């Protein structure tokens, strides 16, 4: 069953927030996002990968214009949950391949990631669902990233 | 604009594969998934979060029945890309909240994660898209996790 790639999406107006070294215990992730929920923060991506020695990192993207509003709250939140560090990076962007079942075929992810590699663009974060494979890359590389992925899938 | 939660999905027939300590350089992610692509491996989730000191971890889920077929290849792959460790965990499952725009509202993620926390279920991996928030938890906790999230959103 062939996967149809419907499009390539991208977003430059995002900022990455990473809470590093949070305790890997029930309630931590809930606390982070309930707090953000009270500020009606628009969240564009959440990734959490493998924990290490009782700690983990939680990364998420917010719209750039929203970052200013929540920055102080993020500092307080980082303290509250016991994060070892709060990292905020406004110089990022997302590029995504969209289509029904995209993540099923590992070949599609491979082609997407390799097309970025050929441009020497480093992949910062990766998040997928059945409809979309998203990569976070440096904002300065975003346009080049979008073109490379467009060439790979839509030409 | 209210987000409509359409459903709670889950999958117990998955195995987690994590490549730990891979070089954080262009081409690594491409190499992993192109290799898996040659084996027609069905990938159900890919997450990569923040890198540390020039290295990162890449985690993905494969269907349980497929794990046997690819296990040797995974060992070879881990060596090829210079991973410090290959971790395979068959005792996991996924639970997801599905609905248009779910990740936009941080409150929804907060409620989902907190409902797991109240059951003292630890969240292993998190991946989101505009349509779905997915958590990987221990397979032994999956049924309880699904019920808790169902109660939170659909009752
Ligand atoms: C790190 C964080 O996700 C934690 N494991 C939790 O369940 O909340
Ligand atoms: C770690 C891996 O994702 C690497 N940054 C790459 O671009 O392939």
Q: Could you list the spans of chain A in which at least 5 consecutive residues all have pLDDT below 50?
A: none
In DSSP terms (H or I, runs of 4 or more residues), the helix count of chain A works out at: 4
Sheet bearing the most strands of chain A, described?
6 strands, antiparallel
Radius of gyration of chain A (Å):
16 Å
Q: End-to-end distance of chain A, in Å?
A: 21 Å
Instruction: Specify which chain pair forms the largest interface.
Output: A-B, 64 and 64 residues
Question: What is the global morphology of chain A?
Answer: globular
Task: Tell me the number of strands of chain A.
Answer: 6
- Name every ligand kind in the structure: threonine
Portion in beta strands of chain A = 35-45%
Average pLDDT of chain A works out at: 93
Approximate helicity band of chain A: 25-40%
Order of helices and strands of chain A: EHEEHEHEEH
* Oligomerization: homodimer
> Order of strands across the biggest sheet of chain A?
2-3-1-4-6-5
